[in-house]
Amino acid sequence: MRKTTLVTGGAGYIGSHTTLTLIDAGHPVVLLDNLCNSCRESITRLEHLTHRHVDFIEGDVRDSALLEDIFDHYDIDAVVHFSSLKSVAESLQKPLEYYANNVVGTLNLCQAMARAHVFKLVFSSSATVYGDPVHTPIAEDLGTGKPVNPYGRSKLMIEELLEDLAQSDPRWSIALLRYFNPIGAHESGLIGEDPHGRPNNLLPCLTQVAIGRLPELIVYGNDYPTVDGTCVRDYIHVVDVAEGHLKALQILQHSPGIHIWNLGTGTGYSVLQIIHSFEDVTGINIPYHFAPRRAGDIAQCWADPSKAGRDLGWCARRNLEQMIMDTWRWQSRNPYGYHSRLELPATVAMK
Ligand code: NAD
Ligand code: WQD
C-alpha cells in the first residue's frame, strides 16, 4: 500500500486546491468531507484536472468508527485537516455547533490518529488567533491575542489543544498554518470558492455583485485609521496557500514538535483598493455603498511571512491582479458555483 495523506474538508475551497497541489506533486490522497459547505462536483472537477480517480469518503470527522475504518483501510502517514465551520456571523448565533464541529472534531481526529499511530498533522489555523494586533506586520512570535467570536476562539482552542498534544508525546509533528485572507481560484476556472448560502467574505460578495446575484456591495466602515478609511487585509492566492501545505508536509517528515507559520503575502490592501483593482482588471463597475462598521472587524492586519520563507522555502508568488483574474474566471464561468452547468472539455482516461 502506498503512503497516503488524509485530507479532511477536501471538497471545500482551500481543501480542493490543496488536494490538486498534492496530487500534482505525486502524493496519494483520500478525502473526507460531509459536504456541509461543499459539493461532490468539486471532486468531479478535481478528477477532471488530475486525470485521476480521487478517493472521496462522504462523512463526518466526528464519526470515530468511520475514522477507524479509514485508518484501517488506507496506509495513512499524515493528515491535512481543513474540515471546520467557518462563518464568523453564524458562529455568534450557533456557538455550540462551532465548538462541537471544530474543537470536538479535531479532538476526535487526533484520538483516531493516535490509535492508528499517525502523528503528522497540518492544521488550518487563521490570523484570527492574533485578535486585534498591537502592530502590523504580524510575526508568529507576537503571540496570540483575543479572538472576538466563537469561530476565532475555536481556532485558538484547537491550537492550544495541539500544543498540549505535541508537548505530551515527541512522536507528534504538527504544523499550525495561520492563513490570512485566501482568495482567488485555480487558473483553470474549474474549482473555486462556492460558499453555501449568503457569503460573508469580501471577494465572494464582490464577485456575486459583478455577476448580478447581489445588487450592490456593502462596504462596512469608511472611518478606520487606514489609507482610505476602509479595512486593510492581507489577501493571498489560494494556490499559494495550497503550496504552503505541500511544503509544510515535507518539513514535518523530519521535524517533530509543533511549528507555527503565517501564510500571507506581507502586503495589505484596503476594501476600496480591492474594489478598484477588480474594476481595473475586469472592466466591470461595482456599485457599492458605505454602511457602519461590521461588529468584530479590526482596522488592519497583514502578515510578516518571513518565517515560512526561512523554514519552508515558501513565499506567495501570485500578485493581486492574478488573484482577481483567477477569482473572476472562476465566478464568471460558474455563476452559480458548482451548481452551474459547465460542459467539461473531453478528458483523457483516468489513472
Ligand atoms: P470550506 O467551508 O470551503 O471547507 C471546509 C470543508 O469542511 C467543507 O467542504 C465542509 O463541507 C467540510 N466540513 C465541515 N465540517 C465537517 C465535518 N464535521 N466533517 C467533515 N467535513 C466537514 O472552507 P475553506 O475556506 O476551504 O476553509 C478551510 C479551512 O481553513 C477551515 O478550517 C477554515 O476555518 C480555515 N481558514 C479559512 C480561511 C478563509 O478565509 N477561507 C481563513 C483562515 C482559515
Ligand atoms: C474583509 C474586509 C470587511 C464583506 C474573515 C474571518 C477570518 C478568516 C477570513 C477564516 C473586512 C469587508 C466584507 C462585505 C465588506 N476566516 N467587507 N463588505 O473579516 O478579514 O476575515 O475571513 O478563518 O477569521 O474573520 O475577511 O473577507 O470577511 O472581510 O466591506 O460584503 O472586507 O468589513 O474589512 P475578514 P472578510
Automatic annotation (TrEMBL):
Query: Is Hydrolase included in the keywords of this UniProt record?
Result: no
Q: Which Pfam families match?
A: Epimerase
Q: Which UniProt keywords apply?
A: Carbohydrate metabolism, Galactose metabolism, Isomerase, NAD
Q: In which pathway does it act?
A: Carbohydrate metabolism; galactose metabolism
Question: Which SUPFAM superfamilies has this protein been placed in?
Answer: NAD(P)-binding Rossmann-fold domains
Record bears the keyword Isomerase? yes
Describe the protein's quaternary organization and the partners it interacts with.
Homodimer.
The similarity annotation says:
Belongs to the NAD(P)-dependent epimerase/dehydratase family.
Give the matching PANTHER family: UDP-GLUCOSE 4-EPIMERASE (PTHR43725:SF47)
Protein name per its UniProtKB record: UDP-glucose 4-epimerase
Q: Which organism is it from?
A: Pseudomonas izuensis
Q: Which gene encodes it?
A: galE
